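BUG: 3D viewer hangs when loading the predicted structure for this chain

Environment: internal workstation, default settings.
Expected: structure renders.
Actual: progress bar stalls at 90%.

Input used:
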Amino acid sequence: MPTPALSDTTTEGIRVGATAFYIPEESSPDDERFVFGYRIVIVNEGSSPATLRTRHWVIIDAEGEIKEVQGEGVVGQQPRLAPGQAFKYTSYCPLTTAWGTMEGSYQFARESGETFDVVIGRFYLTAGKRG
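Structure tokens produced before the viewer hung:
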């Protein structure tokens, strides 16, 4: 079964699309270094503004090793999305194996102060797929 090209999930009106690509010029397979880029699109399809506060990634390589990454915002920003607005960014993930997966969540806050987690569905990092 082929791996899906895109992860697409919606939680509480926040839609997250994710896709990954291999970066051969940054990778060195002989040294067990495989670098993958990924593109994220976040769209507020809900009826009220929301601000991205934190991220939590779960990265699993081909050997089953799990790495978790947590932090504030994404690419140095904490975007506020009004209804209908989108935010796009590209980042990267190095692995020691030729494939792996990423998934996780963003924590968002409403203007009322209410916080909620938005699912980032699993997507695949594979060395055969170029960006």
